[in-house]
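Supplementary Note 3. Input sequence used for the single-chain structure prediction.
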Amino acid sequence: MPVGITRFDQRALLALAVGVGIAAGCSSTRQVDDAMLRAADGDSANWLSHGRTYAEQRFSPLRQIDEASVTRLGLAWWLDMGTLHGLEATSLVKDGILYTSSAWSVVYAIDAREGRVLWRFDPQVPKDHGKFACCDVVNRGVALYHGRVYVATIDGRLIAIDQQTGQPVWDVQTTPRGEPYAITGAPRIAAGRVIIGNAGSEYTVRGFVSAYDAETGSLAWRTYMVPGDPSRPFESVAMKRAAATWSGEWWKGGGGGSPWDPIVYDPALDLVFVGTGNASPWYPELRGTTGGDNLYTASIVALRASTGEQVWHYQATPGDSWDYDATQPILLADLTIEGRLRRVLMQANKNAFFYVIDRQDGTLISARPFAAMNWATGIDSAGRPIVSPAARPTKAGTLVVPSDLGAHNWHPISFSPVTGLVYLAATDAPALHTVDTDFKPDPNDQTVGFDARYQGPLVDKLAAARPTGRLLAWDPVAGTVRWKAEHPVARSGGTLATAGNLVFQGRGDGKFVAYRATDGQVLWEFDAGVGIAAAPMTYMVDGKQYVAVLAAPPLLFTDPNVKTGPNTKTGPGRLLVFGLGGTDTLPTAVRHDTPIPPPAVTIVASPKEIIEGGALFSLFCDRCHSPDLNLVKSGAIPDLRRSTAATHAAFEQIVRGGVRRALGMPSFASDLTSDQVRVIEAYVVDRARMAGGVESPAPPRAH
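The predicted structure, written as discrete structure tokens, is reproduced below.
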């Protein structure tokens, strides 16, 4: 029968776990150590780290579920994760116990055979800090090492949890307390250290990577990705070199460069590879006076694992103008290229180039487009993009492809050594960039420099565009697409490749699909009821193979410009686990497809004020409440167009007073004035009026 655990049940189970050692089965098995992580490729039953092995290839040698047997795949069990927010984690499995994370950085240990919760750890992230999570309060997973489970939290902490009891062992703050840093990425283990980055390049932050002693939580080293105030000593030769590529008073806006997701370790080279975020603010003329490459933003950086020293870097988008982070997944492989065996790293970048780089010295081997682009026309002999002048953002507005959400984003990719192909989600979509020449950094909120007041003709062109998405099988040696499978929605989730000649992927329309790895033929699918962004994983217990995936899309998962075919299903986030012969079922999904009613109130506001309200909404609100105020794609946030008179009566208390803080709605008292809240509310009411088919407002009255 369905596995659905209430919060009360979870608290009771946690107490039982602490009191009688419900997870004591772990104690009779060997703990994860360095040797086990290095040999993980030979351990087909377990999934010990984020990408299964240090190479992060997300390839499993399990073949019980293969292209012939996959038609008998069914739901074995499922677990309600207790959230309507997005789920992005890749679960880990060690000796029959599954470890995963949910929204707000909550961690679970679960019996991998049947879905019984063994313990649940809630780090109690302050809900106000959620406003610094640009794209939902998600978490991409945990790390296992020496009998502990490591998780990084939205409010910037790194926590070691006892693997048996679920009790915290140590808890360290990795980011400046009270500043707009966040962490959504999974920690990685490298030779006795836990390595973690941070997010926040849309805010006034200076990105860095930190390594902590896994036993004690003490800081081993910290490496910054962008230079700080030049009046102070530089932390390294690399930072002094980087400062020459910046101008003006860039440090006052933080600089950005946040390494918010990929951390990949090569023990043979003693190198850690990280991808860095965009420069802050987005547009070069707002960052400095003379432009420049702005190192080491939008780059892949190799660090010495033992010291944090920078060894090499490759900058994918020098002087980035389009929010093209290089924080997409990085995987390692040894490929024969032009008759020579090369140790490479690969990345499907946000900017639509697929990079193959020599991971020993950072030499670019190839960079080929895998999706539509108009910002560049190619790569020059020095390995730099050839930028199209027409794609430079201006105050007058520019439509650029790919969008700031990327041709590919954080969603994990996989590589099959059997087929030699990389499997990844790709999106073709434009974005409108307009430069706010009145921009000033705001230490309390996003500092992108986008002029949300723009009302020109490009708005209609953007609205008319229809983003498209597909699953690609990419040949990294030839630099070409071997096959593709078109998707009904623009954005879909991460991939898993197996020796059974299968590729598993969840899609934005809620379908979990198995494709044949050699040609892309759909062999099996399951309707999860909600969109899937996370990557699947697979494991074996008691001789039976399972495939697991978390289902619930983050808030910005689907492109708001998609007018046909978006995921309109909503419901609680779930962990879904499949096995051959599985017969379990899910409750019917709820659909929000009723007409929008006329607005419950009328607010006196001029057209100019409504435009101002829309601009403020864009800066402060639409990271959670999507631009059309409707989040049917995840159900995490109420559709503001449906707000009742009672909600409107409490509008300022909700936005500035923090009365719904416990529900995840932070207070913006330090960010917005009462007058600004009023024009935001006027914008919300105006959008409700238009959606409800009301051609003109009711007679004005004070509110």
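The chain has a mean pLDDT of 89. Residues 89 and 141 are 4 Å apart (CA to CA).
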